[in-house]
User: Which sequence fits this backbone?
């Protein structure tokens, strides 16, 4: 008798299929035995024996698989462990370095230290459990990968090592990854590439990839961004059906049928103000001040919902993209250019369909009444921020004065109104937080040759104030009339973050704020410290204490603006939530009542809010990556140069310094002089041997030691 037949005889049920009743009994036994242990942990061999699994191995394995899938138990190398009652399902959303983030089913993000990621990559469905937090923000560990993400694509740089060429991934892990060179397309050291994950390990450095595309040198910011966009499946080109629909809209133009029922405002002196290079002009204004001091302010917004209908290829693609993405000198638009730069854009001397908000304001700028209209307008002036600022400051030459003559009086009326609106925001207690962006100057080859802080002029403030009012009116209209909408919400800062801010205030002997501060408390804090050396620290810490703004189907208010009602209404060419708001308001203006709107749009507003929040985060991350890559590209030509910057971040791996041109670099702790360093993350770093302390917001002299375009990293050294 063969050994094989002997094995079958000794284990008569060894190859029998799993039995449901036996599987259920094994599930009960496994949970019982693990609960009986002090640690909730038992070796695989011991558990197998305790359960007498050799009598029915198939049913035992089925029980393990079921409990593991349900998140009751997790495998830890040679042992099985109870997951615990606080385990939760989540999706891995980011792994930017030696750490990651998972998002639970309620939408809360949890920080995951690298050693607890189990090699998880964005898109994985995981079982996670809370761990003690060091910062007050939610932290977790990945217990098990429940469903690995399919078709995982990774961008990165090909780097040489003594063992050969490896991939240094972007936004995935700090570890190098093995390359299956036999299955890959040709590549060279220093190339920026797109890869596919082919094998997984329990750590990121155990993953293997194959190269799908090589884009060229990783020292080109434009190349790096092309790779990142391809890796995320973001393309400038639109699907054929969507592109064809957009072209048809532009070619058809505005017909008499389109004008039926619309308010004809083509005789009014309406004008736009945008950047010099903007082509998607989606807002225009018109203002009048009455003898009693009251104002009538019109905000006209391109009626994109007239062209992008629900259920069409245009709408599906707009929802998928969620927002336009701006970086360098490029735009990845949400809508085809036939719409965004064509029939929807409020070009001068061209009839355009709008959704218009007419607001009656008190003499001090208070919003008294509002109404919305479907309208047709004809802009008379294509305003430019710099030109309007010159007119307002008296620096305009004769040509500019002639160009703006039709709307000159309105410009100055808007300027006075803006001052009053700013005063109202201050009285509401809206915090006056400061953040500065960098402008990127590119040459004819798309290479960054300059960086400078973006300066906001008076006309930028005017347009912002007008748009804020229209956004508030749209949200108030929906809340008071009880019909669904996509709201822009900004919730109260978390108690943990406020506690951290209050601790710093105490250490600096500055005025305290309440445990649950109102927006006015934050504003007073910023105003009281504005002229003190501590202001940069307080401003930075306050920014970090703020919750992230997002979209919601619920009117939760906007903490940062100190408003009960707020929505995004004014940019439907480049943001999907604005388009969603237009669609709902348009049906309301056509006579739909609240009950009908609730039935039609309740589920839509929920899904549109969630998707819009996700695409906004993705776009912001891409734009930040692009800024970092272009800054590093520029600073490569300035290695060895000295600067005086401001400490903009303090972490356990060093201090971040923002240079005068707004490039940010890191003075890594490994490059600091020998010492014993004490770090208060987010606040200061102190050498306990010398007593030298480096505070957030403090000026510091540094030298540029290196710059790496592929990662956007700028290395600095201090004295």
Assistant:
């Amino acid at each position: 008798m063969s050994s094989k037949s002997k094995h079958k005889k000794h284990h008569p049920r060894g190859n029998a299929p799993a039995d449901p009743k036996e599987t259920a009994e094994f599930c009960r036994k496994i949970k019982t035995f693990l609960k009986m242990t002090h640690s909730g942990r038992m070796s695989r061999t011991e558990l197998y024996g305790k359960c007498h699994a050799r009598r029915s191995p198939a049913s035992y394995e089925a029980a393990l698989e079921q409990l593991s899938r349900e998140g009751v138990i997790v495998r830890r190398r040679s042992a099985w462990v109870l997951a615990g009652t606080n385990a939760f399902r989540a999706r891995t959303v980011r792994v930017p370095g030696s750490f990651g983030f998972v998002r639970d089913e309620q939408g809360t993000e949890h920080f995951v230290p690298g050693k607890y990621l189990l090699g998880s990559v964005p898109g994985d469905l995981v079982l996670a459990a809370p761990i003690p937090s060091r910062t007050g923000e939610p932290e977790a560990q990945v217990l098990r990968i429940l469903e690995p993400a399919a078709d995982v694509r990774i961008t990165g740089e090909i780097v040489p090592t003594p063992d050969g060429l490896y991939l240094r991934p972007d936004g995935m892990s700090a570890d190098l990854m093995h390359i299956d060179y036999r299955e890959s397309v040709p590549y060279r050291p220093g190339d920026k590439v797109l890869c596919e994950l082919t094998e997984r390990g329990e750590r990121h450095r155990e993953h293997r990839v194959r190269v799908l595309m090589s884009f060229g040198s990783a020292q080109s910011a434009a190349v790096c961004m092309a790779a990142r966009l391809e890796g995320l499946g973001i393309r400038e080109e639109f699907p054929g059906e969507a592109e064809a629909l957009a072209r048809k809209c532009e070619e058809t133009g505005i017909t008499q049928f389109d004008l039926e029922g619309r308010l004809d405002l083509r005789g009014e002196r309406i004008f736009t103000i945008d950047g010099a290079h903007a082509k998607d002009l989606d807002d225009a204004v018109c203002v009048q001040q009455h003898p009693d001091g009251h104002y009538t302010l019109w905000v006209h917004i391109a009626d994109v919902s007239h062209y992008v209908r629900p259920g069409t290829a245009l709408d599906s693609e707009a929802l998928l993209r969620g927002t336009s993405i701006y970086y360098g000198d490029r735009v990845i638009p949400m809508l085809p250019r036939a719409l965004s730069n064509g029939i929807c854009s409020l070009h001068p001397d061209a009839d355009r369909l709008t959704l218009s908000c007419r607001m009656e304001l008190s003499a001090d700028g208070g919003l008294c009444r509002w109404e919305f209209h479907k309208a047709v307008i004809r802009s008379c002036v294509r305003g430019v921020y710099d030109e309007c600022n010159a007119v307002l400051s008296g620096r305009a030459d004769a040509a500019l004065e002639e160009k703006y003559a039709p709307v000159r009086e309105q410009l100055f009326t808007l300027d006075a109104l803006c001052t009053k609106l700013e005063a109202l925001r201050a009285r509401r207690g809206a915090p006056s937080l400061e953040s500065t962006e960098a402008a990127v100057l590119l040459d004819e080859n798309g290479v960054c040759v300059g960086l400078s802080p973006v300066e906001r002029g008076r006309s930028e403030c005017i347009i912002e104030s007008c748009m804020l009012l229209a956004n508030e009116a749209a949200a108030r209209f929906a809340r008071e009339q009880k019909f669904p909408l996509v709201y822009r919400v900004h919730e109260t800062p978390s108690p943990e973050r406020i506690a951290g801010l209050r601790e710093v205030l105490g250490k600096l002997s500055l005025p305290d704020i309440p445990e649950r501060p109102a927006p006015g408390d934050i504003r007073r804090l910023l105003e009281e410290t504005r002229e003190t050396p501590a202001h940069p620290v307080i401003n930075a810490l306050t920014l970090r204490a703020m919750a992230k703004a997002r979209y919601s189907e619920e009117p939760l208010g906007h903490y940062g603006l100190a408003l009960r009602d707020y929505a995004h209404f004014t940019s439907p060419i480049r943001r999907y939530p604005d388009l969603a708001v237009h669609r709902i308001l348009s049906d309301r203006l056509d006579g739909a009542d609240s009950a009908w709107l609730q039935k039609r749009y309740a589920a839509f507003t929920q899904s549109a809010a969630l998707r819009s929040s996700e695409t906004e985060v993705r776009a912001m991350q891409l734009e930040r990556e692009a800024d970092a890559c272009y800054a590093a590209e520029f600073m490569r030509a300035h290695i060895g140069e000295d600067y005086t910057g401001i400490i903009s971040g303090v972490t356990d791996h060093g201090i971040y310094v923002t240079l005068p041109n707004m490039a940010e670099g890191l003075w890594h702790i490994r490059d600091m002089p020998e010492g014993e360093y004490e770090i208060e993350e987010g606040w200061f770093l102190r050498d306990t041997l010398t007593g030298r302390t480096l505070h957030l917001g403090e000026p510091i002299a540094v030298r540029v030691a290196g710059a790496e375009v592929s990662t956007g990293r700028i290395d600095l050294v201090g004295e």
About this structure: The longest helix spans residues 594-635. The two ends are 82 Å apart (CA to CA). The CA atoms of residues 178 and 208 lie 5 Å apart.
